[in-house]
Write a structure and sequence with these properties.
Low-confidence stretches: none
Order of helices and strands: EHEEHEEHHHEEH
CATH superfamily: NAD(P)-binding Rossmann-like Domain
Strand content: 15-25%
Bound molecules: zinc ion
CATH topology: Rossmann fold
Number of strands: 7
């Protein structure tokens, strides 16, 4: 499987460099800034696109996922937001949820969704000049974990995310379910309609503006 990996930030660059030394089928593209839109000229031919970033970059991931979907490729984000690192979900597969639904679900379950949305927007346009700090051994840990997963166990990330706290060393997996109405992975089932959608519908009915877009 041909892979193109976009890396952003020092932590990500070091993991990407480890993968580059240990894999033949991976093309590393380092980004020196945050771009909500990817640069078409940077895109390589690939069956899997990965964003490995030292900071959140929601719009870049959404846009790359759309591109991957349009050419029948898969998409897979590995995003640090210290102390957390979130791996997955693997999108554009037969099972599981897409990245768009993952972002909507995170907002849906957040008690401060509007604030979270604003923070995402900040990161969409601002590159943090240096990483907030990471243990050098974590480069080896994430590098080896990704190496094994990409070569032997990629399917385990369909519809799943793995969250790891680099300070407490606590990690957990959780399922990601498609949001109602998503043409790719939503169930179209009324019972799966998200709370956020209902909230926005209610606001519209009442003549208010949408809280979440
Ligand atoms: Zn979806």
């Amino acid at each position: 499987m041909k892979i193109q990996l976009f890396s952003i930030g020092k932590f990500a660059d070091e993991i990407a460099s480890f993968l580059d030394r240990n894999m033949d089928n991976i093309q590393i593209t380092q980004l020196s800034g945050i771009y909500p839109e990817y640069d078409m000229e940077l895109l390589q031919e690939a069956e899997l696109f990965i964003v490995l970033s030292s900071q959140p970059c929601v719009d870049l991931c959404k846009n790359l996922e759309k591109h991957a979907y349009s050419i029948g490729a898969k998409f897979f984000p590995v995003i640090a937001n210290q102390p957390m690192v979130t791996i997955g979900p693997l999108s554009n597969t037969d099972e599981g949820a897409c990245y768009h639904c993952f972002v909507d679900r995170v907002l849906q379950h957040s008690p401060i969704a509007a604030v979270q949305n604003s923070v995402n927007e900040f990161y969409n346009h601002n590159m943090i000049p240096s990483d907030m700090g990471f243990h050098p051994a974590d480069v080896s840990m994430f590098g080896n974990w990704l190496l094994y997963t990409l070569e032997h166990n990629l399917g385990s990330l369909e519809g799943q995310i793995f969250n790891f706290n680099t300070y407490s060393r606590y990690g957990y997996k959780s399922n990601v379910i498609g949001v109602h109405g998503c043409e790719r992975c939503g169930t179209q089932n009324e019972a799966a309609r998200s709370y956020m959608t209902l909230e926005n519908m209610f606001k519209n009915e009442m003549g208010g503006k949408e809280l979440i877009k």
